[in-house]
Write the structure tokens for this entry.
Amino acid sequence: MKTKNSLPWRLVCEDNVSAGYGLAADEYFTSAYGAEKTDTEATLRLYTYRDHCALVGRFQHIQAELDLEACRAEGIQVGRRLTGGGAIIMGKDQLGICLASHSKRFEWTTIRDLCALLSVPVVNALKKLGIEATFRAKNDLEVARKKIAGLGVYVDPHGAFHFHTSLLVDLDIPQMLKVLQIPVQKFSDKQKVESVAQRITTVSREAGRKVEMAEMRQLIQAEYEAFFQVQLQEKAVSPEERQHIDRITEERYQNEEWLFQRSPQADMTGMSLKKTPAGLLRTYIGLKGETIKSVLITGDFLEDAELFSQVEAQLKWSPLDRDAIERTVTGIFIKNNHPNLNINPEDVVNAIWLAGQRAHAAERYTYEGSCYYPEEGER
């Protein structure tokens, strides 16, 4: 497949990066395409994090997804991505893949279209190892219904984007269980590992041997070149680029306002979980009598964030009345109507109403649902 330009592509390979640097570098290369300050059609980063980093999705509530005390005790850095999706753990055995470019250079309509298109080389690389992976409608690559990679896309206001893949070449499940809030707390340690292992898999596990990161990188590079009919030219990060990346790291990814956004207020006493085609919605609500004081919708969704922001704003100081909530939510959906919305208003209404009912009972939030262990049904 050819893209809409014939410029060369750049390849950047790095290892052992920090949580902040890894995310800031992706943002830096993306911004260059928005400003049209690059002489390459795209930049492909193939990199690994230090052992270990825990990264939450753009729209998630970090305390509900990560055990922050365990992260501190284990020396695990935490970060919040620009892309949506769920919480993940990254280290030397998980390959970070980031493709940055401008959206006009590819044929796509929705974020899921772009995820599906840009993940084809990853699928093809796995096939070279005898692994048959498929794209799942939301944002994963699966092998026999087990997750092997998570996907995400961020598009900036200038049309530049980056595509993320977290490829599980290998995975230390016991380490992961120490820091990710996965709903297996009542199991024994052995049962926890077995339960998670039924939901996810790794490249090495499926290949039946230890797959080295260098081999995986070479396969990924070759398949991107073949699929997009381009040649990747490796070029290391320059000292000047590193200065820009370090500045972004400090200003955004080490900033607590960025890291702890989407956190419920202290008086938000009701929470509901709703599985939807857009992803898992974790909805919080705070009441003052029979009035909605505040609403917060978090989750591992990839799109529709602006829609949820409008719902949150318009329900503030409105009555806790199901019909009133339905009128507000439906009106927002009609106003924002377009054929690619991946969620329906009834799901949102049900999530908010259930959270409101639970606020009366002052129930605490639970930790069900995660990137590696999605909940089976609705609570």
User: Anything to note?
Assistant: Confidence is low (pLDDT under 50) at residues 363-369, 374-379.
